[in-house]
Amino acid sequence: MSAIGSQRGISPARPNLYDVRRQRGLTVSGLSEKSGVPKASISAIEDGEQASSLEMFWRLSEALNVEFGRLLGSEDQVVYDPSGISAQLVAREAEEESTETYLMSFPADASRLASGHWQGVLETVTVLSGALITGPEAQPLFLSTGQTASFQADGPHIYRSGSRPCRALVVVKYPKSKVGVTAYDKDITWPEAGASNGWSNVRDLLARAKVEVQNGLPLERITFRTSPDDPAEAARRLRSELNPAEGRNSAQIAATRTFVTTDPSLAVSTVFRAAQMGLIPRNPRLSSDVVKHCRELAKAAMQCRAQDTDTRQGLVSTVATGSTTVEAALAAEALTRSGEPTVPPDVTDAELRNHHFSDVECTDRHFEDRIDVNAYEAYELVHPAYARQMLAVAEFMPTFRGGETPTILDVGAGPGVPLKMLLELRPELHAVAVDPSPTAFAHFETRFASDDRVRGINASVTEYRNEGVPFSAAISVGASHHLDTMDFLESIAAQLDSGTVLIVSDEMISPFGTGAERDRNLLVHHLWYVLDTLVDISNDADDGERALAQLLSARLPEAMIAALAGESRQAVRIVRLAYEEAASIPLPATITHPLAAFPRFHMLELQALIAGFDYEVEQKTYPARFIDMAKSCGFDCRRHLRLYATDGIGDRCAGTHVFALARR
């Protein structure tokens, strides 16, 4: 069954649309843009004030990536299309493989061409009276009364009645959100107990997979035909026998990563991981003790192996006693990347306030419409290369003559942590900072309440007008993709004199040509930030925090494997469902264990990823396109560095990027 338009529509009893939209994190505006259904209609449907057609509900279910029946308020609603075709939800079983049953009625000579469901959906049609032609558009079947046919419904399919009215029972079965068989699988039997060469053979296959992947394949997966009844115990045994470096509490030293997964069956997957970091070019005119120390800390993070005793002690001491946020964060990252997960003290001291996503509809949507800004303030400092990017910004920033008081424009300053780190590295700077988010700006004002070098303005850069003070430079950290990029660049260009430098540090994804490619690249990009920082949390942490870490460690590698295997739509579905499940886990207001900051940060990444799927608040582009847009807005790219690599090889692929743009 699929999209059927309606004039009569469905009864205005309140459906489940509001709850599903909120679970998905979409605003009314965002859902309207994705589905093509007017905002006023969505609001009226959610309030139970407007009847809706099946066509409208189908578009909404497609935009939300949920089963059609999940949106209906009850199983007695009947929907119609203009030709008189009607459908009634008879039953819905919301198991892992959810099943929906519809009673459909067709007048004589009625026809409907339905678009496809997502991959793997199966329809079974039983004709109760009359006759019906149904099935894939290219090869439909003729069914008379009492006959049944099943077909894959992930492509266009038809329903066409004959010269008499027809009634049919349509059962739609949705597949599990799991990774199916891929072209990269090697299926073997579980080693028998006592077999001398069983595990040796598995190790040999894993070693071969490592070579295959590091030399060119995106992944290799070893699946087990049989294994012990308890998947968790089998996974523990597999890890014990093979000791794969799964990215949790292990030094990031190889071009490959290995993940053990248990759904839909036990498997060990080897995937390629691009080298993450390179040297940051140095500004020879910067020579403060803080800058020199930060350069050494940034270099230590590139070692990607267990640090020697003296270096480790120095890093631990910096985290514990470092006088600046940027030094402590760089030292913590170096320890984390060497296999000793560490959290800066600014994070462990943070308190997560209650957050409610906004339902207020306005012309300019804010960051907090999709991202928990309070959690962002508390935990974003553990994001890979978060402090490292500020060292790069400081190095890229021009130096100024003695006696000057250089004032910079900070666009999209957020809660202010990046600006704080920049001022630790370049204390001679003054700043005018603009950000439209009320929640972020409240944190910003608190952070800089006693710093007379900084003036904050709660406004978008598109609204801000320079009050006559010439800016010596401008920066923007992590903000260019939160609004129309051309508007962002044009608005900044209007504030700067010719020759003034704008330094942009932001996340970019790999080049894409279709929406499906964009979703795949977006998913791989965000998930590497997560998979690079998976940690094991000890039993003395809160139960919810441990459950969250375990859930993300189990489900997100599955999504990455699906994406790398070419099953992007399935990967997106895995991520959405994993986030919904994770968001339902109760968590304490403050972390009960330092390492619990990592899964809290991972939830922020998932919020950003899902907002990116919806193209709401998160609108990432790729480096070459960004440079070209900057050129159109009057900037020339003088320097460009891929600071932290996620997806793809080369400076024009995904990761955290820093650009120095000169105003023409």
What global shape is seen? globular
Largest sheet: 7 strands, mixed
The helix tally amounts to 20
Count of folded domains: 5
Quaternary structure state of the chains depicted: single chain
Q: How are strands sequenced across the largest beta sheet?
A: 17-16-15-18-19-21-20
Please compute the radius of gyration using only Cα atoms: 27 Å
What distance lies between the first and last C-alpha atoms, to the nearest angstrom?
Answer: 57 Å
Indicate the CATH architecture of the largest domain: 3-Layer(aba) Sandwich
Average pLDDT confidence is 87
List how many beta strands DSSP finds: 21
Beta-strand percentage?
Answer: 15-25%
CATH level 1 class label of the largest domain: Alpha Beta
Topology, pairings included?
Layout: H1 17-24, H2 28-35, H3 39-46, H4 54-64, E1 78-80, E2 86-93, E3 99-106, E4 111-114, E5 122-129, E6 131-136, E7 141-144, E8 148-152, E9 157-161, E10 166-173, E11 185-188, H5 198-214, E12 219-224, H6 231-242, E13 256-261, E14 267-272, H7 289-301, H8 309-321, H9 325-337, H10 345-348, H11 373-379, H12 386-396, E15 407-411, H13 417-425, E16 430-434, H14 438-447, E17 454-457, E18 473-477, H15 485-493, E19 501-508, H16 515-531, H17 543-564, H18 568-583, H19 597-614, H20 623-632, E20 635-645, E21 655-663
Parallel strand pairs: 11-12, 15-16, 15-18, 16-17, 18-19
Antiparallel strand pairs: 1-2, 2-3, 3-10, 4-9, 5-8, 5-10, 6-7, 6-9, 12-14, 13-14, 19-21, 20-21
Helix pairs in contact: 2-4, 7-9, 8-9, 9-12, 12-13, 16-17, 16-18, 16-19, 17-18, 17-19, 18-19
